[in-house]
Design goal:
Blueprint (H helix, E strand, L loop, with lengths): L4 E4 L4 H13 L3 E5 L5 H12 L3 E5 L2 E5 L29 E2 L2 E2 L6 E4 L4 H12 L3 E6 L10 H9 L3 E4 L8 E5 L6 E6 L4 H9 L7 E10 L2 H13 L4 E7 L2 E4 L13 E5 L8 E3 L4 H13 L4 E4 L12 H8 L2 E4 L3 E5 L7 E3 L7 H9 L8 E4 L11 H11 L3 E5 L2 E5 L8 E4 L5 H7 L8 E4 L12 H5 L4
Parallel strand pairs: 1-17, 2-16, 7-8, 11-12, 20-21, 24-25
Antiparallel strand pairs: 2-4, 3-4, 5-6, 8-10, 9-10, 12-15, 13-14, 13-15, 17-19, 18-19, 21-23, 22-23
Helix pairs in contact: 1-2, 1-6, 2-3, 3-5, 5-6, 9-10, 9-11
Length: 468
Amino acid sequence: MEAPIQIKAPSSKSMSHRAFIAASLAAGESLVADALESDDLIRTRQCLTAAGARFEAVAEGWKITGVAGRPQGGQSDQGDISGNGQAAPAGQGRPTQGGTVGKAAPADCNMGESGTSCRLLTAVLGAGRGRFRVHGEGRLHDRPMGQLTDVLQTLGVTFHWEGKPGYPPFVMETSGFKGTEASIPLDESSQYLSGLLLGAPLSEQALRVNIAGSKVVSWPYVSLSLMVMADFGIDYDVEALENDVWVKRAPTEVTAVAPGKLRFTVRPGQYKDRPYAVEGDWSNASYFLAAGAIGPRPVRVSGLRPDSLQGDKAILEILAAMGAKVVWDATGVTVTPVGLKGVELDMGSCPDLVPTVAATAALAPLGSGTTTIRNVAHLRIKESDRLQACADELAKLGAITETFSDGLSITPGPLPKGLRMELRTYDDHRMAMSLSLFTLAGVDVALDNPTCVAKSFPGFWDAWRNIA
């Protein structure tokens, strides 16, 4: 076997968002190093800047001057927002569904196509002061937010819908969270809970947050939020219901989560300024690790933490279950092709890996069995309907695919080797990167929008040249 191809993992997108938010809420100046530079992170920086934080690019990373816990939006023409969280009397502003807005322009928070920015920041800004206009581009206005905005309304935040209630664009008015308890469903996204937790220290009273709904998706991302909060000096309790008794648990001890069985208490506190280095990204490393499983050469990826709380670290377990050889050394992990097979997978905790795993399954040998992926119904409301997008594009490449309510199945078929295949990305960065895996099997992949990778990994194609 040839020597492995060497790849350095890009910085974590999830951790970069959270570090930017925490540093922006601090009272002093923080240095965030190794943050990912991508379209989504640009949007998060711009929105935090609109709320009063200052970002300065320096040689070591980003020097961030925080707002001392109070994101500031535009004020109404009557002054601050009323204490009960209702809209102040209208001035001459543009009417919107559900009320009117005053003369002063709200802080402009253009989230672009970043669902992460939109979900996290809507909650964090809701804990601030003033008026904020949340809007975006592309498919963002079709992505539901009602489960979050309903909860924020119970905490005193007022929404003026410019289109369909529960969806961007909207203007929200707030004088901070009111109340001591909230319950948030996690059927659609764990980012609703993460946003509430990140904003909760700004409250004047301790806030208890309960998990509601029928199921919990993407739990490991909540662990990342809790880790960053602790790193920046925020005090909270995590409690699990065990034998009808609430027991305090460390976030790292919580692995199985069910509605009604876990709650959080976040006390008022000030985020502390500090230096912070962002770890490598398991989501974006997954394409290179999968390339090692497919062949023809092993791939070694450095810059990843083996003890990371990122849920997408599960890619190694998945590839090993499919038959690849996975070996850690002191500074990296190597994946070697051995022979892949079909597996049954619950990917509710790592949904961003689904396009990678689906493409890998389609590239397994003929007769190696069917891979079935379940518990990822929320992928239908991502940048694309990722379940249907995966099924349709993999079918073009010879796989036998089937979708169902919460997942899909993939059975390898004859690959169109040597042929040019026109494939759709659906303007979805993860579709573009996962479909690139087929170049390793001799397929001439022609993507309709390869530049959409800039959303999360602008340097992907430069790194991919080392593989393909």
